[in-house]
Amino acid sequence: MNNKQIALAFDELANLMELHGEDPFRIRSYANAYLTLRKIDSSLAELSDTELKDIKGVGAAIAGKIRELLDSGQMATLEKYRAQTPAGVRELLKIGGFGPKKVRQVWQEMGIESPGELWYACNENRLVEYKGFDLKTQEDLKNKLAYFFRSRGKLHLDSALAEAEAVCEFLRSKIPDTLVEPVGEVRRRCQVVESVEVLVAKEGDLMSVFEGSDFVLEKREDGKTLLRRAEGAAVVLYQCSSAAWGSKLFKYTGAVPFLETFVKEHPDLDFKNLPGEEAVFEKANSAFIAPELRESAESSGAKSSLQLIQDQDLKGILHVHTTYSDGLHTLREMCEHTRSLGYAYIGITDHSQSAFYANGLKPDRVLAQMEEIDQLNVELAPFRIFKGIESDILNDGSLDYEDALLEKFDFVIASVHSNLRMNIEKATERVVRAIGHPSTTILGHPTGRLLLSREGYPLDWDAVFEACAKHKVSIELNAHPRRLDIDWSMISRALAHGIRISINPDAHSKDGILHTRFGVMVARKGGLTAEGCLNAMGVEDIISVTKKGSLP
């Protein structure tokens, strides 16, 4: 181990001990050891035990631990605290500016055990309910988390899009009338992006264009340039001539399995130097295949004629939280804003009573909200407000209220929020029972996953799809870019069972309604059309498929 690795081991030990509330004196000694050891130029591995002990602030005990690390690569004390701490909580300690005391608070008081869960709690405004947190500190923490996620190598789709679009906008401003587009995983709308790539139709050296900007050149090789913007992710920049734009756009967009299959199917055609991408498909005598579908070998043919869903196909929004539970804006504000965006209806779905951490609604507050919705429906007509709830699916698969109250809702989103570590048999039994409840309209974020942070719980999808088809229950595509759940790869299976997909923003603020754009992106990747989307229906059609027949 080198000096830096040894120093970081003591830093981790100090943080873990502070996390567990250990003796402050010992914590300080290990923290000081970190500060000392990282500054030493000579190799610690070349020092004798006596020389190690002579280092100011080290002493016999810490010297012994250094020797442990040098001899075995491990430190028994550090391994003990690692074993006592969930891996996700240890990840929380790596978030810059979020110290062990705060990590201990969110872990022990809020049950948060990963950076993804923490980000989602911020998004749902849960932290502001606890001592030491307010909207400002919560927003600051979201920014720190955003950087943390960016720095780990893989990006959520929204972050990757932002990085790619920043490069594109910059180049368009500096080189007018130049073709420039995101390619690769970003253009295919992959829910997790490993490489942000951009193609520009401009030959020659572009480095002078970036002089004086916040873009930094990191590497140039094999006809591509690696750029980074401030603390943003690395962006691979490809260049080509305008005459070859279509060919290169096609080449750099498709995943390898798709491209290999396409070339095998058309071995005698020359796809080089085509100015437009459509010309590639015309030359192959093939219908145009949307970029989102160019992922696998199987995607090359069957879906080419689909009229994939678009943003404008969505007629309403069906998963929205307000200040009645853990939303940032009031019922009126969420309704008026949704109407201003051009939607015809909204479905209010605050959390149910078991979600105490999210200020879930007790029955009396449910009835109070229903009264307010009745008044707003009169005032805001013809815009419609549906009375909904995001009901927790309890451990046994039952919903979170008595049937008499559940029957009063226009629709119910049934979601799992707790006990996410069931085995596949129990998890499936739980979800299938909830689907079978006569009040359930939509199965919410069906795996409970948080991309890059928490895997979803396992399900027997054949059983889930069969239950949804039998009970006419739709499945949510939760459009929040940290969820995007149901996975795009499962959409075609759901559609084959006659199940509708509901693209829901899970909005906890007015801005959150715009998450539908990410849902539409990955829905297209899964081959969803407007006909297969629940909230692409108009008001009257929505009424016909909800558990209640009409609104007051």
Q: Assign the CATH architecture of the largest domain.
A: Alpha-Beta Barrel
Q: How are the strands ordered across the major sheet?
A: 8-9-10-11-12-13-14
Indicate the multimeric state: single chain
- Write down the overall geometry: globular
| Number of helices, where a helix is a run of at least 4 consecutive DSSP H or I residues | 23
Q: Specify the biggest β-sheet.
A: 7 strands, parallel
Name given to the CATH homologous superfamily of the largest domain? Metal-dependent hydrolases
Low-confidence stretches: 548-552
CATH class placement of the largest domain: Alpha Beta
The computed structural class is: alpha/beta
Rg over alpha carbons: 27 Å
| Mean pLDDT rating | 90
Indicate how many domains the architecture comprises.
Answer: 4
Distance between the termini: 71 Å
Instruction: Tell me what portion of residues adopts beta-strand conformation.
Output: 5-15%
What is the number of E strands? 14
CATH topology-level name of the largest domain: TIM Barrel
